[in-house]
Amino acid sequence: MSDLTAIKNNEILKPFFDRNSEFDLNTFNFFDKDAVTALNWEGLEQEQISDRLK
Hints:
Elements: H1 3-8, H2 14-19, H3 33-38, H4 46-53
């Protein structure tokens, strides 16, 4: 299993990836606040997930 597959299947992160199927961890700019806001965070712990993805 690749590292990215393990990340996408993590119990905390999986719901995020399910809601944001177009999200690319390799290219996403977490410093772009508009891009972060545009993600689907409904029902998710945004701060906790963002910290794990960075």
